[in-house]
Amino acid sequence: MHKNPICLTALIITVFCGCNEITEPANPIDKNATPETVALFQNLMKISENHVLFGHQHATEYGQGWYGDDDRSDVKSVTGSHPAVIGIDFMHLSNRSREEIETEKERLRKNVVDTYNRGGITTATWHFHNPVSEGRFYWVDSVSVAAVQHIIPGGYAHEDYKVILADIADWAHSIRGEDGTLIPIIFRPFHEFDGDWFWWGKAHTSREDFVSLWQFTVSFLRDSLNVNNFLYAFSPDNRFETEEEFLERYPGDEWVDMLGMDNYGDLGRDRYDLETASQKLMIVSDYAKKVQKLAAFTETGLESIPDTTWWTNTLLEILKTEGMRMSYVLVWRNDVNSPTHYYAPFPGQVSAPNFIEFYNDPFTIFENDLKEIDVYRFNSL
């Protein structure tokens, strides 16, 4: 299933001509970023003026009732196209044996390379296993240790943290497309830090230590390990109402490429409050425009999607808020085994017909649309 060619032509024209003012293009925070990384940053900014890319976590790794099938996603099974943005996770790049880490590097590398070769975009989150205690990434009162203070410079586990980052850097240097290009990705560490459920959450570390962790992580990857194909995304949960609250743990404009937020609660999980969801996203969008950063709706969704019009009447309604610019929206994963833990439709799921409407709307961009738009090249829009 493909979008109407007229819509694709209009998409290309509106992206190219969407901005009346002529301004100097913004750039990533890495002054040595690869040309493709700079192009991705600038093209996502252009696209966000008139469109939004659709993303899905773990889309091509597994889905409802399947795992590891080649060139498959539940989204593609419904629409004929993979998502434009595909989420992966660095979860298993630490707290594993050396053999398991190397196997995971190769598995993730193949996923990213395949996505790039098709024209798609990868974003990496990091459900980072607690590096100094048991308890995985979630905080568990009986076993978890507040690790941030111990892995920042001066902490007793700082050198151990540098080893973990070196593995991420080694992987980042290995992801090359069939054209030989080092592939850019959007790296989103320490997400939802304003909540208390992760060991890096607000209840378990000071603002100063969190900022130190963020700045060291970026600096060590970028400046010491020469990772020049990452864009860095900052994404709290929805626990803010003002720009000041949104920026409470912000490490500074020189340390962030993308401003985002995660919000499930206002979109049906806890309540339907589209006005509040829009207001919060506008805070993100407005600040990003002010400081020439990308903005994205980095996580959202409605588990099991029982609402048959959720895609157009909730999600698309919010994303079309006047003046809002979001480069992409990403919904969470479809579990392999659970009959209820999924956030994108699959064939036969009750919201699938409405999701096709969402797909066909000229405002949304999926991977098939990116065949007409090379987001990794300058002047491609």
UniProtKB/TrEMBL annotation:
Which residues carry out catalysis?
A: E192 (proton donor), E299 (nucleophile)
Name any one Pfam family assigned in the record.
Glyco_hydro_26
The record's subcellular location field reads: Secreted
Q: Where is this site: Plays an important role in maintaining the position of the catalytic nucleophile?
A: H191
Sections of the chain in a coiled coil: 91-118
Q: Which domain of life is it from?
A: Bacteria
- GO CC terms in record: extracellular region
EC number from the UniProt entry: 3.2.1.78
Chief place of localization: secreted
Q: Give the catalysed reaction(s), semicolon-separated.
A: Random hydrolysis of (1->4)-beta-D-mannosidic linkages in mannans, galactomannans and glucomannans
Q: Which UniProt keywords apply?
A: Carbohydrate metabolism, Coiled coil, Glycosidase, Hydrolase, Secreted
On whether Protein transport is a keyword of this UniProt record, the answer is no
Q: Which GO terms describe its molecular function?
A: mannan endo-1,4-beta-mannosidase activity
- All copies of the GH26 domain together span 35-368
Q: Which residues bind substrate?
A: H127, W197, Y264
Q: Which Gene3D superfamilies match?
A: Glycosidases (3.20.20.80)
Question: Which GO terms fall under biological process for this protein?
Answer: substituted mannan metabolic process
The entry sums up its family as follows: Belongs to the glycosyl hydrolase 26 family.
**PANTHER family attached here?**
GH26 DOMAIN-CONTAINING PROTEIN-RELATED, MANNAN ENDO-1,4-BETA-MANNOSIDASE E-RELATED
The protein here is known as Mannan endo-1,4-beta-mannosidase
